[in-house]
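C-alpha coordinates for chain A. Residues wanted.
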Protein backbone atom coordinates (compact mmCIF):
# COMPACT_ATOMS: atom_id res chain seq x y z
CA UNK A 1 0.00 0.00 0.00
CA UNK A 2 1.43 3.45 -0.94
CA UNK A 3 2.42 6.14 1.51
CA UNK A 4 -0.09 8.72 2.66
CA UNK A 5 0.59 12.31 3.75
CA UNK A 6 -0.88 13.34 7.08
CA UNK A 7 -0.95 16.77 8.77
CA UNK A 8 -1.33 16.71 12.56
CA UNK A 9 -2.12 19.95 14.41
CA UNK A 10 -1.14 20.24 18.07
CA UNK A 11 -1.63 23.02 20.62
CA UNK A 12 1.82 24.42 19.83
CA UNK A 13 2.72 23.44 16.26
CA UNK A 14 1.80 21.48 13.14
CA UNK A 15 3.51 18.22 12.18
CA UNK A 16 3.69 16.56 8.80
CA UNK A 17 4.13 12.84 8.38
CA UNK A 18 4.33 10.32 5.56
CA UNK A 19 3.33 6.81 6.56
CA UNK A 20 2.55 3.61 4.69
CA UNK A 21 -1.23 3.35 4.66
CA UNK A 22 -1.08 -0.16 6.10
CA UNK A 23 0.53 1.01 9.35
CA UNK A 24 -1.79 1.18 12.38
CA UNK A 25 -3.12 4.44 13.80
CA UNK A 26 -1.27 3.71 17.05
CA UNK A 27 2.03 4.10 15.18
CA UNK A 28 1.12 7.65 14.14
CA UNK A 29 0.07 8.54 17.69
CA UNK A 30 3.35 7.21 19.10
CA UNK A 31 5.32 9.14 16.50
CA UNK A 32 3.51 12.37 17.39
CA UNK A 33 4.17 11.86 21.13
CA UNK A 34 7.82 11.15 20.39
CA UNK A 35 8.09 14.27 18.26
CA UNK A 36 6.56 16.34 21.08
CA UNK A 37 8.72 14.61 23.75
CA UNK A 38 5.59 13.70 25.75
CA UNK A 39 5.75 10.79 28.18
CA UNK A 40 2.34 11.01 29.89
CA UNK A 41 0.73 9.86 26.66
CA UNK A 42 -2.33 8.25 28.29
CA UNK A 43 -4.10 11.63 28.52
CA UNK A 44 -3.91 12.35 24.80
CA UNK A 45 -5.35 11.15 21.54
CA UNK A 46 -5.81 11.92 17.84
CA UNK A 47 -9.09 13.13 16.41
CA UNK A 48 -10.74 14.77 13.45
CA UNK A 49 -13.93 16.76 13.08
CA UNK A 50 -16.91 14.79 11.86
CA UNK A 51 -20.56 15.66 11.33
CA UNK A 52 -21.85 18.75 13.19
CA UNK A 53 -18.22 19.69 13.88
CA UNK A 54 -18.02 17.01 16.59
CA UNK A 55 -14.66 15.56 17.59
CA UNK A 56 -14.20 11.99 16.43
CA UNK A 57 -11.44 10.24 18.36
CA UNK A 58 -9.32 7.81 16.39
CA UNK A 59 -9.31 4.24 17.61
CA UNK A 60 -5.78 3.41 18.76
CA UNK A 61 -6.11 -0.24 17.88
CA UNK A 62 -4.53 -1.86 14.87
CA UNK A 63 -6.87 -0.08 12.48
CA UNK A 64 -4.94 1.06 9.40
CA UNK A 65 -4.10 4.71 8.79
CA UNK A 66 -5.56 4.48 5.32
CA UNK A 67 -8.97 4.06 6.96
CA UNK A 68 -8.73 7.53 8.48
CA UNK A 69 -6.93 9.28 5.63
CA UNK A 70 -10.03 8.81 3.54
CA UNK A 71 -12.13 10.51 6.26
CA UNK A 72 -9.87 13.43 7.20
CA UNK A 73 -6.73 14.89 5.67
CA UNK A 74 -6.05 16.93 8.82
CA UNK A 75 -5.82 15.29 12.22
CA UNK A 76 -5.59 16.93 15.62
CA UNK A 77 -3.63 15.96 18.72
CA UNK A 78 -5.35 16.87 21.97
CA UNK A 79 -6.50 15.94 25.45
CA UNK A 80 -8.72 12.90 25.34
CA UNK A 81 -8.82 12.12 29.06
CA UNK A 82 -8.60 14.63 31.88
CA UNK A 83 -7.16 13.54 35.24
CA UNK A 84 -9.21 13.65 38.42
CA UNK A 85 -6.92 16.32 39.83
CA UNK A 86 -4.69 18.15 37.35
CA UNK A 87 -2.54 19.63 40.10
CA UNK A 88 -1.73 16.20 41.59
CA UNK A 89 -1.95 13.76 38.69
CA UNK A 90 -0.07 15.59 35.93
CA UNK A 91 3.59 14.92 36.61
CA UNK A 92 5.74 16.58 33.96
CA UNK A 93 5.96 20.30 33.10
CA UNK A 94 5.60 19.63 29.37
CA UNK A 95 2.32 17.78 29.94
CA UNK A 96 1.07 20.69 32.05
CA UNK A 97 2.01 23.11 29.27
CA UNK A 98 -0.12 21.17 26.74
CA UNK A 99 -3.04 21.05 29.17
CA UNK A 100 -2.76 24.81 29.71
CA UNK A 101 -2.66 25.58 25.97
CA UNK A 102 -5.67 23.43 25.11
CA UNK A 103 -7.80 24.44 28.10
CA UNK A 104 -7.12 28.11 27.40
CA UNK A 105 -8.02 27.65 23.75
CA UNK A 106 -11.28 25.85 24.65
CA UNK A 107 -12.24 28.64 27.06
CA UNK A 108 -11.51 31.36 24.49
CA UNK A 109 -13.66 29.52 21.95
CA UNK A 110 -16.42 28.98 24.54
CA UNK A 111 -16.22 25.20 24.27
CA UNK A 112 -15.90 25.22 28.06
CA UNK A 113 -18.26 27.63 29.79
CA UNK A 114 -16.43 30.06 32.07
CA UNK A 115 -18.18 32.93 33.94
CA UNK A 116 -17.08 36.47 33.08
CA UNK A 117 -15.25 37.27 36.32
CA UNK A 118 -13.26 34.04 36.13
CA UNK A 119 -12.48 34.75 32.45
CA UNK A 120 -10.89 38.08 33.42
CA UNK A 121 -8.93 36.48 36.26
CA UNK A 122 -7.67 33.72 33.96
CA UNK A 123 -6.73 36.34 31.34
CA UNK A 124 -4.46 38.00 33.92
CA UNK A 125 -2.69 34.68 34.54
CA UNK A 126 -2.39 34.15 30.78
CA UNK A 127 -0.72 37.58 30.42
CA UNK A 128 1.77 36.69 33.15
CA UNK A 129 2.46 33.32 31.49
CA UNK A 130 3.02 34.90 28.09
CA UNK A 131 4.75 38.21 28.91
CA UNK A 132 6.12 37.79 32.43
CA UNK A 133 5.82 40.66 34.90
CA UNK A 134 3.60 43.59 33.91
CA UNK A 135 5.25 46.17 31.68
CA UNK A 136 3.36 49.30 30.66
CA UNK A 137 5.01 49.14 27.23
CA UNK A 138 3.28 45.81 26.45
CA UNK A 139 0.03 46.34 24.55
CA UNK A 140 -2.50 43.55 25.21
CA UNK A 141 -5.41 45.33 23.54
CA UNK A 142 -4.91 43.36 20.32
CA UNK A 143 -4.77 39.97 22.08
CA UNK A 144 -7.75 37.69 22.55
CA UNK A 145 -8.13 37.65 26.32
CA UNK A 146 -11.55 36.03 26.85
CA UNK A 147 -14.55 34.72 24.87
CA UNK A 148 -16.54 37.24 22.81
CA UNK A 149 -19.52 36.39 25.01
CA UNK A 150 -17.97 38.23 27.96
CA UNK A 151 -18.01 41.63 26.25
CA UNK A 152 -21.35 41.06 24.52
CA UNK A 153 -23.13 40.41 27.79
CA UNK A 154 -21.82 43.49 29.63
CA UNK A 155 -21.81 47.24 29.03
CA UNK A 156 -18.19 47.69 30.05
CA UNK A 157 -15.91 48.96 27.28
CA UNK A 158 -12.95 46.99 26.01
CA UNK A 159 -10.62 49.48 27.71
CA UNK A 160 -12.39 48.88 31.05
CA UNK A 161 -12.04 45.11 30.66
CA UNK A 162 -8.36 45.50 29.81
CA UNK A 163 -7.89 47.73 32.86
CA UNK A 164 -9.37 44.97 35.05
CA UNK A 165 -7.05 42.39 33.48
CA UNK A 166 -4.06 44.70 33.95
CA UNK A 167 -4.90 45.42 37.60
CA UNK A 168 -4.87 41.68 38.31
CA UNK A 169 -1.83 41.04 36.12
CA UNK A 170 0.21 43.50 38.21
CA UNK A 171 -0.57 41.40 41.32
CA UNK A 172 1.18 38.37 39.77
CA UNK A 173 4.57 40.10 39.82
CA UNK A 174 7.38 37.63 40.39
CA UNK A 175 5.30 34.55 39.49
CA UNK A 176 7.04 32.13 37.13
CA UNK A 177 5.51 30.83 33.91
CA UNK A 178 4.94 27.26 35.11
CA UNK A 179 3.57 28.57 38.38
CA UNK A 180 0.86 30.66 36.74
CA UNK A 181 0.05 27.83 34.30
CA UNK A 182 -0.45 25.48 37.24
CA UNK A 183 -2.65 28.03 39.02
CA UNK A 184 -4.60 28.62 35.80
CA UNK A 185 -5.34 24.88 35.54
CA UNK A 186 -6.19 24.64 39.22
CA UNK A 187 -8.81 27.34 38.79
CA UNK A 188 -10.25 25.91 35.59
CA UNK A 189 -10.59 22.49 37.21
CA UNK A 190 -13.53 23.96 39.13
CA UNK A 191 -15.42 24.75 35.92
CA UNK A 192 -18.47 22.53 35.40
CA UNK A 193 -17.78 21.55 31.78
CA UNK A 194 -14.05 20.86 31.87
CA UNK A 195 -13.04 17.33 30.94
CA UNK A 196 -16.65 16.33 30.11
CA UNK A 197 -17.52 14.63 26.80
CA UNK A 198 -21.21 15.12 26.06
CA UNK A 199 -23.39 12.77 24.00
CA UNK A 200 -27.14 12.76 23.33
CA UNK A 201 -28.94 9.72 24.71
CA UNK A 202 -32.38 8.52 25.76
CA UNK A 203 -33.47 6.45 28.71
CA UNK A 204 -35.78 3.43 28.44
CA UNK A 205 -38.81 5.75 28.49
CA UNK A 206 -37.43 7.55 25.45
CA UNK A 207 -36.73 10.82 27.30
CA UNK A 208 -34.05 12.90 25.57
CA UNK A 209 -31.06 13.29 27.94
CA UNK A 210 -27.32 13.89 27.76
CA UNK A 211 -24.56 11.72 29.19
CA UNK A 212 -21.37 13.45 30.27
CA UNK A 213 -18.36 11.14 30.48
CA UNK A 214 -15.74 12.69 32.74
CA UNK A 215 -12.87 11.86 35.14
CA UNK A 216 -15.25 11.41 38.09
CA UNK A 217 -17.85 9.18 36.46
CA UNK A 218 -20.82 9.28 34.10
CA UNK A 219 -23.23 12.17 34.71
CA UNK A 220 -26.74 12.47 33.30
CA UNK A 221 -28.01 15.91 32.26
CA UNK A 222 -31.12 17.50 30.89
CA UNK A 223 -30.34 18.81 27.37
CA UNK A 224 -30.98 22.43 28.37
CA UNK A 225 -28.57 22.37 31.33
CA UNK A 226 -25.05 21.00 30.92
CA UNK A 227 -23.78 22.67 34.09
CA UNK A 228 -25.91 20.76 36.61
CA UNK A 229 -26.18 16.98 36.24
CA UNK A 230 -29.40 15.47 37.56
CA UNK A 231 -27.82 12.19 38.60
CA UNK A 232 -24.37 10.65 38.54
CA UNK A 233 -22.71 7.25 38.58
CA UNK A 234 -19.12 7.48 39.89
CA UNK A 235 -16.46 5.13 38.54
CA UNK A 236 -16.25 3.50 41.98
CA UNK A 237 -19.73 2.06 41.36
CA UNK A 238 -19.12 0.97 37.75
CA UNK A 239 -17.74 -2.47 36.99
CA UNK A 240 -17.84 -2.23 33.19
CA UNK A 241 -19.59 -0.64 30.25
CA UNK A 242 -20.74 -2.38 27.07
CA UNK A 243 -23.14 -1.81 24.23
CA UNK A 244 -25.06 -3.75 21.64
CA UNK A 245 -26.62 -1.87 18.78
CA UNK A 246 -27.87 1.42 20.27
CA UNK A 247 -28.22 0.09 23.80
CA UNK A 248 -25.55 0.76 26.45
CA UNK A 249 -25.41 -1.07 29.75
CA UNK A 250 -23.52 0.05 32.83
CA UNK A 251 -22.76 -2.93 35.05
CA UNK A 252 -22.39 -1.89 38.67
CA UNK A 253 -19.89 -3.24 41.21
CA UNK A 254 -22.72 -4.32 43.51
CA UNK A 255 -24.36 -7.23 41.69
CA UNK A 256 -27.56 -6.68 43.66
CA UNK A 257 -27.90 -3.24 42.07
CA UNK A 258 -29.86 -2.73 38.87
CA UNK A 259 -27.97 -2.14 35.62
CA UNK A 260 -28.11 1.31 34.09
CA UNK A 261 -29.41 1.20 30.52
CA UNK A 262 -29.48 4.04 28.02
CA UNK A 263 -29.63 4.40 24.25
CA UNK A 264 -27.46 6.48 21.98
CA UNK A 265 -29.29 8.97 19.78
CA UNK A 266 -26.70 8.65 17.00
CA UNK A 267 -25.14 5.21 16.33
CA UNK A 268 -22.02 6.97 14.98
CA UNK A 269 -21.23 7.96 18.56
CA UNK A 270 -21.43 4.44 19.99
CA UNK A 271 -17.73 3.69 19.61
CA UNK A 272 -16.82 7.13 20.98
CA UNK A 273 -18.97 6.67 24.10
CA UNK A 274 -17.53 3.21 24.65
CA UNK A 275 -13.89 4.26 24.14
CA UNK A 276 -14.15 7.31 26.39
CA UNK A 277 -16.02 5.43 29.10
CA UNK A 278 -13.52 2.58 29.18
CA UNK A 279 -10.56 4.98 29.04
CA UNK A 280 -11.76 7.07 31.96
CA UNK A 281 -12.61 3.94 33.95
CA UNK A 282 -9.09 2.59 33.36
CA UNK A 283 -7.57 5.88 34.50
CA UNK A 284 -9.69 5.69 37.66
CA UNK A 285 -8.43 2.16 38.41
CA UNK A 286 -4.85 3.00 37.43
CA UNK A 287 -4.76 5.95 39.83
CA UNK A 288 -5.55 3.58 42.72
CA UNK A 289 -2.96 0.95 41.85
CA UNK A 290 0.75 1.00 42.68
CA UNK A 291 2.71 3.17 40.27
CA UNK A 292 4.51 1.52 37.38
CA UNK A 293 8.28 1.84 37.08
CA UNK A 294 7.81 4.50 34.39
CA UNK A 295 5.52 6.64 36.55
CA UNK A 296 7.75 6.12 39.60
CA UNK A 297 10.70 7.38 37.55
CA UNK A 298 8.75 10.41 36.32
CA UNK A 299 7.60 11.25 39.84
CA UNK A 300 11.17 10.96 41.14
CA UNK A 301 12.34 13.28 38.37
CA UNK A 302 9.49 15.69 39.14
CA UNK A 303 10.44 15.59 42.83
CA UNK A 304 14.05 16.35 41.96
CA UNK A 305 12.89 19.21 39.76
CA UNK A 306 10.79 20.63 42.59
CA UNK A 307 13.75 20.37 44.94
CA UNK A 308 15.91 22.06 42.32
CA UNK A 309 13.32 24.79 42.00
CA UNK A 310 13.24 25.32 45.76
CA UNK A 311 17.03 25.53 45.80
CA UNK A 312 16.93 27.97 42.90
CA UNK A 313 14.24 30.00 44.60
CA UNK A 314 16.21 30.12 47.84
CA UNK A 315 19.24 31.25 45.89
CA UNK A 316 17.10 33.73 44.00
CA UNK A 317 15.65 35.09 47.24
CA UNK A 318 19.15 35.48 48.69
CA UNK A 319 20.34 37.22 45.55
CA UNK A 320 17.30 39.47 45.60
CA UNK A 321 18.01 40.35 49.24
CA UNK A 322 21.65 41.03 48.35
CA UNK A 323 20.54 43.06 45.36
CA UNK A 324 18.16 45.06 47.55
CA UNK A 325 20.95 45.60 50.09
CA UNK A 326 23.32 46.74 47.36
CA UNK A 327 20.64 49.02 45.98
CA UNK A 328 19.97 50.39 49.48
CA UNK A 329 23.69 51.05 49.95
CA UNK A 330 23.80 52.66 46.53
CA UNK A 331 20.90 54.93 47.45
CA UNK A 332 22.56 55.74 50.77
CA UNK A 333 25.86 56.53 49.04
CA UNK A 334 23.99 58.59 46.50
CA UNK A 335 22.28 60.56 49.26
CA UNK A 336 25.60 61.07 51.01
CA UNK A 337 27.16 62.18 47.73
CA UNK A 338 24.26 64.57 47.17
CA UNK A 339 24.62 66.04 50.66
CA UNK A 340 28.38 66.39 50.22
CA UNK A 341 27.86 67.89 46.81
CA UNK A 342 25.46 70.43 48.28
CA UNK A 343 27.94 71.27 51.03
CA UNK A 344 30.84 71.46 48.59
CA UNK A 345 28.84 73.61 46.23
CA UNK A 346 28.20 75.96 49.14
CA UNK A 347 31.94 76.04 49.83
CA UNK A 348 32.60 76.54 46.15
CA UNK A 349 30.18 79.47 46.09
CA UNK A 350 32.01 80.96 49.08
CA UNK A 351 35.31 80.50 47.22
CA UNK A 352 33.88 82.09 44.10
CA UNK A 353 32.65 85.02 46.19
CA UNK A 354 36.16 85.34 47.69
CA UNK A 355 37.69 85.35 44.23
CA UNK A 356 35.16 87.96 43.14
CA UNK A 357 35.97 90.12 46.17
CA UNK A 358 39.68 89.71 45.45
CA UNK A 359 39.19 90.74 41.86
CA UNK A 360 37.22 93.78 43.00
CA UNK A 361 39.93 94.62 45.60
CA UNK A 362 42.69 94.22 43.02
CA UNK A 363 40.82 96.59 40.76
CA UNK A 364 40.54 99.08 43.66
CA UNK A 365 44.25 98.71 44.42
CA UNK A 366 45.15 99.30 40.81
CA UNK A 367 42.96 102.42 40.82
CA UNK A 368 44.54 103.57 44.13
CA UNK A 369 48.06 102.98 42.80
CA UNK A 370 47.17 104.94 39.67
CA UNK A 371 45.80 107.76 41.82
CA UNK A 372 48.94 107.60 44.02
CA UNK A 373 51.14 107.81 40.97
CA UNK A 374 49.18 110.78 39.65
CA UNK A 375 49.44 112.60 43.00
CA UNK A 376 53.17 111.82 43.23
CA UNK A 377 53.64 113.28 39.75
CA UNK A 378 51.69 116.35 40.73
CA UNK A 379 53.81 116.68 43.90
CA UNK A 380 56.98 116.28 41.91
CA UNK A 381 55.89 119.00 39.48
CA UNK A 382 55.07 121.27 42.45
CA UNK A 383 58.51 120.65 43.96
CA UNK A 384 60.15 121.50 40.66
CA UNK A 385 57.96 124.57 40.38
CA UNK A 386 58.96 125.57 43.96
CA UNK A 387 62.61 125.12 43.11
CA UNK A 388 62.20 127.27 40.08
CA UNK A 389 60.00 129.90 41.83
CA UNK A 390 62.67 131.69 43.96
CA UNK A 391 61.86 134.94 42.25
CA UNK A 392 58.24 134.70 43.34
CA UNK A 393 56.87 136.93 45.98
CA UNK A 394 56.76 135.70 49.50
CA UNK A 395 52.99 135.31 49.56
CA UNK A 396 52.91 133.27 46.40
CA UNK A 397 55.76 131.14 47.65
CA UNK A 398 53.98 130.46 50.92
CA UNK A 399 50.85 129.57 49.07
CA UNK A 400 52.77 127.08 46.90
CA UNK A 401 54.44 125.53 49.93
CA UNK A 402 51.04 125.13 51.57
CA UNK A 403 49.74 123.32 48.49
CA UNK A 404 52.83 121.12 48.47
CA UNK A 405 52.27 120.25 52.13
CA UNK A 406 48.62 119.29 51.51
CA UNK A 407 49.67 117.29 48.47
CA UNK A 408 52.31 115.47 50.56
CA UNK A 409 49.64 114.63 53.15
CA UNK A 410 47.30 113.39 50.44
CA UNK A 411 50.07 111.29 48.90
CA UNK A 412 50.90 109.91 52.35
CA UNK A 413 47.20 109.06 52.94
CA UNK A 414 46.93 107.36 49.56
CA UNK A 415 50.22 105.56 50.21
CA UNK A 416 48.84 104.19 53.48
CA UNK A 417 45.59 103.17 51.79
CA UNK A 418 47.54 101.37 49.07
CA UNK A 419 49.65 99.59 51.69
CA UNK A 420 46.51 98.59 53.62
CA UNK A 421 44.80 97.38 50.48
CA UNK A 422 47.96 95.60 49.40
CA UNK A 423 48.05 93.83 52.75
CA UNK A 424 44.37 92.88 52.39
CA UNK A 425 45.10 91.75 48.84
CA UNK A 426 47.80 89.40 50.07
CA UNK A 427 45.28 87.97 52.55
CA UNK A 428 42.66 87.62 49.83
CA UNK A 429 45.23 86.00 47.55
CA UNK A 430 45.90 83.45 50.26
CA UNK A 431 42.14 82.89 50.56
CA UNK A 432 41.92 82.59 46.77
CA UNK A 433 44.70 80.03 46.71
CA UNK A 434 42.87 78.11 49.45
CA UNK A 435 39.62 78.41 47.46
CA UNK A 436 41.37 77.13 44.33
CA UNK A 437 42.82 74.24 46.31
CA UNK A 438 39.38 73.42 47.73
CA UNK A 439 37.83 73.68 44.26
CA UNK A 440 40.44 71.30 42.83
CA UNK A 441 39.84 68.92 45.74
CA UNK A 442 36.11 69.22 45.15
CA UNK A 443 36.55 68.37 41.47
CA UNK A 444 38.77 65.39 42.29
CA UNK A 445 36.41 64.19 45.03
CA UNK A 446 33.40 64.65 42.75
CA UNK A 447 35.06 62.57 40.03
CA UNK A 448 36.06 59.92 42.58
CA UNK A 449 32.60 59.78 44.16
CA UNK A 450 30.92 59.66 40.76
CA UNK A 451 33.16 56.74 39.84
CA UNK A 452 32.32 55.01 43.14
CA UNK A 453 28.60 55.67 42.63
CA UNK A 454 28.80 54.31 39.09
CA UNK A 455 30.62 51.21 40.36
CA UNK A 456 27.91 50.72 43.02
CA UNK A 457 25.22 51.16 40.38
CA UNK A 458 26.91 48.64 38.08
CA UNK A 459 27.26 46.16 40.97
CA UNK A 460 23.59 46.58 41.82
CA UNK A 461 22.67 46.14 38.16
CA UNK A 462 24.81 42.99 37.92
CA UNK A 463 23.10 41.59 41.03
CA UNK A 464 19.67 42.34 39.56
CA UNK A 465 20.69 40.79 36.23
CA UNK A 466 21.92 37.63 37.95
CA UNK A 467 18.67 37.44 39.89
CA UNK A 468 16.74 37.85 36.64
CA UNK A 469 18.77 35.11 34.95
CA UNK A 470 18.11 32.81 37.90
CA UNK A 471 14.41 33.60 37.62
CA UNK A 472 14.44 32.86 33.88
CA UNK A 473 16.22 29.57 34.53
CA UNK A 474 13.69 28.65 37.20
CA UNK A 475 10.80 29.25 34.78
CA UNK A 476 11.28 25.79 33.27
CA UNK A 477 10.85 23.94 36.54
CA UNK A 478 7.51 22.87 38.02
CA UNK A 479 6.80 24.85 41.21
CA UNK A 480 4.69 23.98 44.18
CA UNK A 481 1.09 25.04 43.71
CA UNK A 482 0.03 28.31 45.31
CA UNK A 483 -3.32 29.44 46.57
CA UNK A 484 -5.07 32.24 44.69
CA UNK A 485 -3.15 35.41 45.33
CA UNK A 486 -4.95 37.06 48.23
CA UNK A 487 -4.16 40.44 46.73
CA UNK A 488 -6.68 39.60 44.01
CA UNK A 489 -9.62 39.37 46.40
CA UNK A 490 -10.47 43.08 46.34
CA UNK A 491 -9.94 43.23 42.57
CA UNK A 492 -12.32 40.31 42.05
CA UNK A 493 -15.00 41.79 44.32
CA UNK A 494 -14.76 45.12 42.50
CA UNK A 495 -14.96 43.39 39.13
CA UNK A 496 -17.94 41.25 40.16
CA UNK A 497 -19.75 44.38 41.31
CA UNK A 498 -19.06 46.11 37.98
CA UNK A 499 -20.16 43.08 35.98
CA UNK A 500 -23.40 42.80 37.94
CA UNK A 501 -24.16 46.50 37.37
CA UNK A 502 -23.43 46.37 33.63
CA UNK A 503 -25.03 43.01 32.82
CA UNK A 504 -27.06 42.83 29.59
CA UNK A 505 -29.75 40.32 30.56
CA UNK A 506 -31.11 40.08 27.03
CA UNK A 507 -27.68 39.06 25.67
CA UNK A 508 -26.93 36.36 28.25
CA UNK A 509 -26.49 32.74 27.20
CA UNK A 510 -28.38 29.88 28.82
CA UNK A 511 -25.20 28.97 30.71
CA UNK A 512 -24.91 32.53 32.04
CA UNK A 513 -28.41 32.35 33.48
CA UNK A 514 -27.86 28.89 34.95
CA UNK A 515 -24.57 30.01 36.50
CA UNK A 516 -26.23 33.03 38.14
CA UNK A 517 -28.92 30.77 39.54
CA UNK A 518 -26.23 28.45 40.92
CA UNK A 519 -24.54 31.41 42.61
CA UNK A 520 -27.83 32.48 44.22
CA UNK A 521 -28.33 28.95 45.54
CA UNK A 522 -24.69 28.65 46.67
CA UNK A 523 -24.10 25.68 44.36
CA UNK A 524 -20.89 24.66 42.66
CA UNK A 525 -19.62 21.65 40.74
CA UNK A 526 -18.64 19.60 43.78
CA UNK A 527 -21.65 20.49 45.93
CA UNK A 528 -23.92 19.43 43.08
CA UNK A 529 -22.13 16.09 42.67
CA UNK A 530 -22.29 15.46 46.40
CA UNK A 531 -26.01 16.21 46.43
CA UNK A 532 -27.01 14.06 43.44
CA UNK A 533 -24.92 11.09 44.63
CA UNK A 534 -26.80 10.79 47.89
CA UNK A 535 -28.66 7.58 48.45
CA UNK A 536 -27.90 4.17 47.00
CA UNK A 537 -27.29 3.31 43.37
CA UNK A 538 -30.73 1.73 42.89
CA UNK A 539 -32.40 4.98 43.86
CA UNK A 540 -30.34 6.92 41.32
CA UNK A 541 -31.02 4.33 38.60
CA UNK A 542 -34.74 4.70 39.27
CA UNK A 543 -34.45 8.49 39.09
CA UNK A 544 -32.67 8.20 35.73
CA UNK A 545 -35.28 5.77 34.37
CA UNK A 546 -38.18 7.98 35.47
CA UNK A 547 -37.10 11.24 33.77
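Reply:
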Amino acid sequence: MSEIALLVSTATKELQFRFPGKRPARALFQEVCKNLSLREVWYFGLYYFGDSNRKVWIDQSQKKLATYSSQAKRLYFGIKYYPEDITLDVIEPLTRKYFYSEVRNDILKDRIYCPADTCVLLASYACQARHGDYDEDIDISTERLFPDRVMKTHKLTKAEFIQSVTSMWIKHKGSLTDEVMAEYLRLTQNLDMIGVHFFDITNQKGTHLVVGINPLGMNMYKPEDKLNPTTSFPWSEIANLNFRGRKFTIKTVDKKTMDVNFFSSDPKNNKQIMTLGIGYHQLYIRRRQPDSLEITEMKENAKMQRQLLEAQRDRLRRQQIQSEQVEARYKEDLKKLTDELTSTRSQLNDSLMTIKRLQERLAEIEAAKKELEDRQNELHQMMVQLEQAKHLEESERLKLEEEIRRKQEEVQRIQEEVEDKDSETKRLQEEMEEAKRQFEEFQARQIREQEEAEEARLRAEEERQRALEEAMTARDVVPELAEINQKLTDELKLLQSKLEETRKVEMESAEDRIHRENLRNDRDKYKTLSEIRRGNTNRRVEMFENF
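Residues 197-289+534-545 form a domain with the PH-domain like fold (CATH 2.30.29.30). The radius of gyration is 45 Å.
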